[in-house]
Amino acid sequence: MTDAANLTRKTITVGAGTLAREIAIIHRAARKKTSGPAFVWLGGYRSDMTGTKAVELDALAGELGLASIRFDYSGHGASGGAFRDGTISRWLEEAIAVLDDIRPKRVILVGSSMGGWITLRLVQELKKRKRAAKVDGIVLIAPAPDFTAELIEPKLTEVERQSLSERGYFEEHSEYSTEPNIYTRDLIEDGRKNSVMTGIIETGCPVHILQGMKDPDVPYAHALKLVEFVPADDVVLTLIRDGDHRLSRPQDIEKLRSAVSALILND
């Protein structure tokens, strides 16, 4: 059962004054008498909640009668705000606001690429709260925590460094869009404040990482490094030999569904 009857589309306002932006949400309510965690989708850089993996995750929730929550960060998809204003802190604030609005009791967090970073930061922030959703499990798809410091800054050219200094941003060709990727000085500086790969990441729940070995954007060595910071008895790493960054092929989606379903079974 994957009907649209249980879907609600809404927007919430995050921030005040000049920082206010409208965040678009798609919420699938759980079927009555169905207990279990809500699936929460945290998308990647320049991705939105209508992408293949996000839709497939919502479909799985519908089949199981569980709730699902999708939203677009500011500057992405159907949400307001300027993309160039985006930082990890800003997008994290929006993720927290979405959970505060819908108030699920239990969640399984599914983060893709940059969404993996925001997922790990979200877990850290939820742990600081007395009343917060319980995180039953985490699935990370080609996770890119600390990507600004780990993957971007070491490869900056002199031209890009000069652009950051003089214009506050630099542009990079995108394999997935006709528009270039834009990386701002604010994003990079804020990224340092949100680093997670600096010590043990206490998730308090099982973690399953799906990583393509032919990923041109986030090398699988980055996933191997991430594993060093997650308690070994709580993490599973699945390397997909011919997998790319998107991991949106039917066989990849099946691995995603299996990983999420296994976290429910282990609940």
UniProtKB/TrEMBL annotation:
TM annotation in the entry: none
SUPFAM superfamilies to which the protein is assigned, alphabetical: alpha/beta-Hydrolases
Alphabetically ordered keywords of this record: Hydrolase, Transit peptide
E.C. code: 3.1.1.93, 3.1.2.22
Domain AB hydrolase-1: 57-252
Keyword Oxidoreductase assigned: no
InterPro entries: AB_hydrolase_1, AB_hydrolase_fold, ABHD10_acyl-thioesterase
Reactions that this protein is recorded to catalyse: mycophenolic acid O-acyl-beta-D-glucuronide + H2O = mycophenolate + D-glucuronate + H(+); S-hexadecanoyl-L-cysteinyl-[protein] + H2O = L-cysteinyl-[protein] + hexadecanoate + H(+)
Pfam families: Abhydrolase_6
GO molecular function: mycophenolic acid acyl-glucuronide esterase activity; palmitoyl-(protein) hydrolase activity
Record-linked PANTHER family: MYCOPHENOLIC ACID ACYL-GLUCURONIDE ESTERASE, MITOCHONDRIAL, PALMITOYL-PROTEIN THIOESTERASE ABHD10, MITOCHONDRIAL
Function: Acts as an acyl-protein thioesterase that hydrolyzes fatty acids from acylated residues in proteins. Regulates the mitochondrial S-depalmitoylation of the nucleophilic active site residue of peroxiredoxin-5/PRDX5, a key antioxidant protein, therefore modulating mitochondrial antioxidant ability. Also catalyzes the deglucuronidation of mycophenolic acid acyl-glucuronide, an active metabolite of the immunosuppressant drug mycophenolate.
Name this polypeptide is given: Palmitoyl-protein thioesterase ABHD10, mitochondrial
Species: Neorhizobium galegae
